[in-house]
Design goal:
With 576 residues, the protein is α/β, with parallel strands linked by helices. 48% of the residues lie in helices and 16% in strands. The C terminus is likely disordered.
């Protein structure tokens, strides 16, 4: 990288340097050929090469110490006058060229890239590579930053990188302006770095995401790879070579909509577990069963039709293409006018999906349909987060925002990998059981979206508990991980959702269930409860207090707890 900077600078400054060298050479040569005069005014030999070069060096640099070593002859003074003007022109040209070099985008990019590579190489904490930092990437970066997880991003739009730099992150987000589909850019971002934990290919280009997934799997197969995709064919391609998680936002939302019609309490539970932690509970969605109208039969519309038909929903499609498949009931039109909507049966339908790729058309469809049938359940597709104000003003019953769907899925996979496994088990639950768990979570977290996290009982993630289970040879119940380390008789606002042991799933395990080394647990609760539980998992003294009620602190820790900031974190061991 340093060599690249040197050669770029040398190439840009080649002409000015040549001009300066020629001016200095001619100036020195002239002084060595023109005769001088001595102190008595008699002719004297010309200046020596050393004296001539010395004089030109300080005169051409506009310093000027006078005539050395003696007074000049008229001819020498005339030549020096020429030298002065030539040197001013040469240095002006060189300075202007140097300023242009400093502002050269190519050189700036090389310098920024070199600084980026050095900072990535120096990272010592776990981080994720974020390929694409548009609306989706920014949502993910903010959420990971709140959880204390570092992010390295590759984005080809320089404007988005500048927006990223003015964001209020607790830790710097390292950004590289480049194409994530280029393998060398992935390597610069730390694809083979020992602290890299995964790659998120979430650009709005399916081909670029496919390239990122392939490169990541080839160059570092141990990394977790999450890819965003909209095309079913590219989705199948990604799954064929072992991409860990593929998020198709069209299919995901269509599946959620179909499940919400069939089992609204199931979707309510999923909505709680995948929301942004700490925010107010999302509005409940209960789409009705009956006849539906789908406006737009692109990739999103096709996904909605497939999933609704799988649930036995009767539907009619409105699309301007007259050559659609004969397998669907089709009305030619866009849905922005009343006549196609009436022919599709909007007046007797229970719901409408405005799913075109134009936000204004979708709003127009929804407003027209609502005038014809005020009782309609309206599902809107929002393509751009920048139009949020318009969609908020309309206040649809259900809004599909691709960036939010992808961000929520990616965050769930990063922070709690067991969550997707738990969702698979949820599909077999009766609606009443899902309703009961959703109610418990709402009450537990004070009408806020719960935080979901996973824990593996090993030496890395739970050293204190792992040591107890391995060394003490004493049983330990799951309920002990719910005790407050500041007051062991109180219970933390969290609940276990899943325990995975030897490939077997234990859903909503009871507090009496005994733990074993290697168990994987999925919890939901408040952020403060997670922090308190981390103390129990990590600190042996805290764990002993929770298990036995005995304060096993050393005298130094006790002194710090009484007088220092250690006691201010709110999680210290309670003194009896």
């Amino acid at each position: 990288m340093n060599a690249s900077v040197f050669f770029i600078a040398l190439r840009r400054m080649r002409a000015p340097l040549i001009v300066l060298i020629v001016i200095y050479a001619l100036s020195t040569l002239g002084l060595t050929l023109i005769p001088g005069i001595d102190a008595e005014g008699r002719p004297a030999p010309p200046m020596s090469f050393f004296h001539a070069f010395y004089f030109v060096s300080y005169t051409a640099s506009t310093i000027g110490f006078g005539e050395l070593p003696g007074a000049f002859s008229e001819a020498q003074r005339m030549w020096v006058t020429v030298v002065i003007f030539l040197s001013v022109i040469g240095w002006s040209y060189s300075i202007i060229s140097l300023l242009a070099l400093v502002q050269d985008r190519g050189l700036q990019q090389v310098l920024l890239t070199g600084r980026f590579v050095r900072r990535v190489r120096q990272l010592g904490e776990p981080f994720y590579i974020l390929c694409g930092c548009g609306e989706t990437g920014l949502l993910i970066a903010r959420a990971l930053d709140r959880d204390g997880i570092r992010v390295v991003t590759i984005e080809r739009n320089e404007g988005r990188i500048q927006e990223l730099e003015i964001e209020d992150f607790s830790a710097d987000v390292l950004a590289l302006c480049g194409d994530a589909a280029q393998p060398q850019h992935l390597l610069m971002a730390g694809l083979k770095h020992r602290s890299c934990r995964g790659v998120l290919a979430i650009t709005d280009d399916d081909a670029a995401n496919l390239s990122v997934a392939i490169a990541s799997r080839l160059m570092n197969p141990s990394l977790m790879v999450i890819a965003r995709v909209a095309s079913p064919s590219i989705e199948a391609n990604m799954m064929s070579f072992g991409t860990h998680y593929v998020v198709n936002h069209f299919e995901k939302f269509a599946d959620y909509l179909a499940q919400a019609i069939h089992s609204p309490n199931w979707y309510r539970l999923v909505d709680l577990l995948t929301g942004l932690p700490g925010q107010e509970l999302p509005e409940r969605h209960d789409p009705p069963a009956g006849d539906w109208v789908i406006c737009g039969y692109g990739r999103f519309g096709q996904a909605v039709v497939r999933n609704l038909e799988r649930q036995g929903v009767s539907l009619t499609v409105i699309d301007p293409d007259p050559n659609l498949s004969s397998s669907v009931h089709h009305i030619v039109g866009q849905g922005t006018e009343a006549e196609p909507l009436r022919r599709a049966g909007i007046e007797t339908a229970v719901g409408i999906v405005a799913g075109s790729d134009h936000d204004t058309n979708n709003l127009s469809i929804a407003m027209t349909a609502k005038e014809l049938n005020p009782d309609l359940f309206v599902v809107l597709r929002q393509n751009r987060i920048a139009n949020q104000v318009l969609f908020d003003a309309y206040d649809a019953d259900f809004t599909m925002v691709p960036s939010k769907i992808v961000a929520r899925e990616c965050l769930a996979l990063i922070t709690s990998p067991l969550l997707s496994r738990f969702f698979g088990l949820l599909r077999g639950w009766p609606d009443t059981r899902a309703e009961a768990l959703a109610g418990q979570l709402e009450a537990l977290c004070g009408r806020r979206v719960p935080l979901v996290w996973g824990v593996r009982l090993n030496a890395a993630e739970a050293p204190a508990v792992h040591q107890w289970l391995m060394m003490e040879q004493k049983p330990m119940a799951l309920g002990r991980l719910r005790h407050d380390p500041a007051a062991r008789t109180k219970t933390l606002p969290l609940m276990p959702l899943l325990l995975l042991r030897d490939g077997r799933d234990h859903q909503q395990p009871a507090d009496e269930m005994l733990l074993q080394p290697g168990d994987q647990l999925l919890f939901a609760g408040t952020r403060a409860a997670k922090m308190a539980q981390n103390l129990v998992l990590d600190n042996r003294n805290v764990l002993d207090y929770v298990l036995t009620g005995q304060d096993a602190q050393g005298w130094l820790w006790s002194l710090l707890s009484r007088s220092g900031p250690v006691g201010d974190v709110g999680m210290q061991v309670r003194r009896k």
